[in-house]
Amino acid sequence: MIVVTGAAGFIASCLVSRLNQANFNDIVVVDNFSVSKKERNLQGKKIKEFVDRDNFFDWLDEHYEEVEFIFHLGARTDTTEFDKDIFDLLNLNYSKKVWNACCEYQIPLVYASSAATYGAGTLGYDDNEDIIPLLKPLNPYGESKNDFDIWALEQTAKPFFWAGLKFFNVYGPNEYHKGKMASVILHAYNQVHEQGRLALFRSHNPEFKDGEQMRDFIYVKDVVDVCLFLMHHRKNSGIYNLGSGEARTFMSLALNTFEAMGVPANIDFIDTPLTIRDTYQYFTEANMSKLRSIGYDKPFYTLEEGVKDYVQNYLIPHKYY
């Protein structure tokens, strides 16, 4: 059996689908299934068992001999939430329990970290584990992810294989439920569909023109392919960046969304909200050499390819992956 936590969420539900495509059908999905707005993400998928996240460790104590691999992708991901106790509970302490269980039962583990750990990027975006204790995330979400990365690296007891993945700006199908935390592409599509226009945040940094803020956007299909690679690879444990390796502007993202929709571009700019203006990132770009160095050689989707596939094959027909 393969366990996927956070399974009804965006990335994890796409991973379940990708595992099914690879003929892995004994999937145990772990989540808070009382959140009904995520339920469609798992419809039609081949799943062996549903386990509530609060019951997971009791379940694992009984079934650990049958578990081949754990993907721990469950987390509170709201970057505008400032209650540190929530992040300590769900992101830090729950992850420690998953890690310790994988050590006790010798189960290989892939877990979700985040590019939010890099903060303003003053130390760059290299997945060099020596700099992880020096990073300064800009919000409690990023702090919780970095706190766990630091804790994991300090442990003398480790799963025989483990990998932490620093997800950059992931976009793609199955994020319909994420509200304000969904990708800019989904928000752009909805705005254009409803209003025929798109508003982007104005730049408040003189080094960047309006719309020229840059992010490393990575398509979710690439993310789940990397997860499968690591499940089969099972060596070279450590923390890895997972982005496309190429920063692109929000303007490029917007223009590609209009093109994929077959709608003339109509873009204006609004002020970045004061609540996030001081912690707004103007540039992110993953150094992907570490993952490439262990043998992952599949090309990543370009922004043009990813946006076109997402918009035309999922958003317009409102399909799930």
Automatic annotation (TrEMBL):
Positions that bind substrate: 169, 180, 187, 201-204, 215, 280
Cofactor comment: Binds 1 NADP(+) per subunit.
Major enzyme class: isomerase
Positions of the NAD-dependent epimerase/dehydratase domain: 2-243
GO biological process: one example: ADP-L-glycero-beta-D-manno-heptose biosynthetic process
Keyword vocabulary terms for this entry: Carbohydrate metabolism, Isomerase, NADP
Sequence positions that bind NADP(+): 10-11, 31-32, 38, 53, 73-77, 145, 170, 178
Coiled-coil regions listed in the entry: none
SUPFAM superfamilies in UniProt: NAD(P)-binding Rossmann-fold domains
Pathway the protein acts in: Nucleotide-sugar biosynthesis; ADP-L-glycero-beta-D-manno-heptose biosynthesis; ADP-L-glycero-beta-D-manno-heptose from D-glycero-beta-D-manno-heptose 7-phosphate: step 4/4
A Pfam cross-reference name: Epimerase
Cofactor(s) listed in the protein's UniProt record: NADP(+)
The reaction(s) this protein catalyses: ADP-D-glycero-beta-D-manno-heptose = ADP-L-glycero-beta-D-manno-heptose
EC number(s) recorded for this UniProt protein: 5.1.3.20
Keyword Isomerase carried by entry: yes
A molecular function (GO) term: ADP-glyceromanno-heptose 6-epimerase activity
Record: active site: 141 (proton acceptor), 178 (proton acceptor)
Domain remark in the UniProt entry: Contains a large N-terminal NADP-binding domain, and a smaller C-terminal substrate-binding domain.
Quaternary organization: Homopentamer.
Function description: Catalyzes the interconversion between ADP-D-glycero-beta-D-manno-heptose and ADP-L-glycero-beta-D-manno-heptose via an epimerization at carbon 6 of the heptose.
The family this protein is said to belong to: Belongs to the NAD(P)-dependent epimerase/dehydratase family. HldD subfamily.
Protein name as annotated: ADP-L-glycero-D-manno-heptose-6-epimerase
Organism annotation: Pontibacter ummariensis
Taxonomic lineage of the native organism: Bacteria, Pseudomonadati, Bacteroidota, Cytophagia, Cytophagales
